[in-house]
Design goal:
There is one protein chain. The protein has about 325 residues and is of the alpha/beta class. It is built from 11 helices and 13 strands. The chain folds into 2 domains: about 170 residues, Peroxisomal Thiolase, Chain A, domain 1 (3-Layer(aba) Sandwich); about 150 residues, 3-Layer(aba) Sandwich (Peroxisomal Thiolase, Chain A, domain 1). The chain has a 5-stranded mixed beta sheet, sandwiched between helices. Strands 8-13-12-11 form a 4-stranded mixed beta sheet, sandwiched between helices. It has a two-stranded antiparallel ribbon with strand order 2-3. A hairpin with a 3-residue loop joins strand 12 and strand 13. Helix 3 crosses helix 4 and helix 8 crosses helix 9. The longest helix is centred in the C-terminal third of the chain and has 22 residues. The protein starts with a strand and ends with a strand.
Length: about 325
């Protein structure tokens, strides 16, 4: 039986730290309000003059390759998860290929928002198992700060979203590594968390930038109560699905890394599932919600801190726009 395993993990976050105090100086909010609702103390924003989704992803990739004792030339396929590509098209996968100095290998883009990294991991897992590829780069990267409404009107999303990149290297193994992945969606709730434009299903005059006067449909729209209500249910469902699929119980989870959407969601899930603090890893306090990048950034930090090591039963879980939700059970 052919399996896939994560041979290396890496991340990159921009240098600029945006504190709650700074946000309080430009909109009607304060540290206490933000921490109470999200758990976030600070986040990272790109420098638009030098940072791109692709070059942040390249930096995360090089860290992952170094930890795996591999080089760029070992990569034979790229799966790139992002909802904030550098261009409307082409996708950022080919831009990352160019950043890494690679030629002609395939690059696949995934647009499943907060669940994107697990979706990408699942795709890569199948390619490894079939023997089609031997070394696959799986990336989640986002730049959201440049689209945030930095006014009191937009504070519900402005205090949450941020920038960063994470990368994982998948290779074949003769022992189980990625034990299972579980993917779900429910498009009935697509408009509860979305950015409407630039969408294609519009009259021509609404797609011509020189004719656009109202740009509000280019901002993130989020029904926070609906997202929270669905997230806490779907998170636990998909975690339990992963456990059942592998004949495990919650006691078998050495470490759960949930998508870093909101610390209150993670804490609610931890309490309901009866997991200890040592069994759950959160870093949203430092980085905010980096969408598809949040899980690989957290994995990379947890690995560096010694919380992920050989034999660790690692559970990943995500919920987000779409709605989509997903989980993966991994034996490191």
């Amino acid at each position: 039986m052919r399996y896939s395993r994560i041979a290396g993990i890496g991340h990159h976050v921009p240098e600029t730290v945006i504190t709650n105090e700074y946000l309080s100086s430009i909109m009607e909010t304060n540290d206490e309000w933000i921490v109470e609702r999200t758990g976030i103390k600070e986040r990272r924003y790109v420098d638009p003059t030098k940072d791109t989704v692709a070059n942040m992803a390249a930096k995360a990739t090089r860290m992952a390759l170094q930890r795996a004792n591999l080089t760029e030339k070992d990569i034979d396929f790229i799966v790139f998860a992002t909802i904030t590509p550098d261009y409307f098209f082409p996708g950022s996968g080919v831009l990352l290929q160019r950043e890494l100095g690679l030629e002609s290998i395939g690059a696949l883009d995934i647009r499943n928002a907060c669940s994107g990294f697990i979706y990408a991991l699942s795709v890569a897992d199948q390619f490894i198992k079939t023997g089609m590829y031997k070394t696959i780069l799986v990336v989640g990267a986002e730049i959201q700060s440049t689209a945030i409404d930095m006014t009191t009107r937009g504070r519900n999303t402005a205090v949450i979203f941020a920038d960063g990149a994470g990368a994982a290297i998948l290779q074949p193994s003769d022992k189980p590594g990625i034990l299972s992945t579980h993917l779900h969606s429910d498009g009935r709730f697509a408009e509860e968390l979305y950015v409407r434009d630039p969408g294609s299903s519009r009259p021509r005059e609404e797609r011509q930038p020189e004719q656009i006067l109202d740009t509000t449909t280019y901002k993130v729209v989020m029904n926070g109560n609906q997202v929270f209500k669905h997230a806490v249910v779907r998170f636990m469902e998909v975690i339990n699905e992963a456990l059942a699929s592998n004949n495990m119980t919650r006691e078998n989870i050495d470490l759960l890394i949930p998508h870093q959407a909101n610390l209150r969601i993670s804490q609610y899930i931890q309490e309901k599932m009866g997991l200890s603090d040592a069994q759950v890893y959160n870093n949203i306090m430092r980085y905010g919600n980096t969408t598809a990048a949040s899980i690989p950034i957290a994995m990379s930090e947890a690995w560096a801190e010694g919380k992920i090591k050989e034999g660790t039963n690692l559970c990943l879980a995500a919920f987000g726009s779409g709605f989509t939700w997903a989980s993966a059970m991994i034996r490191w």
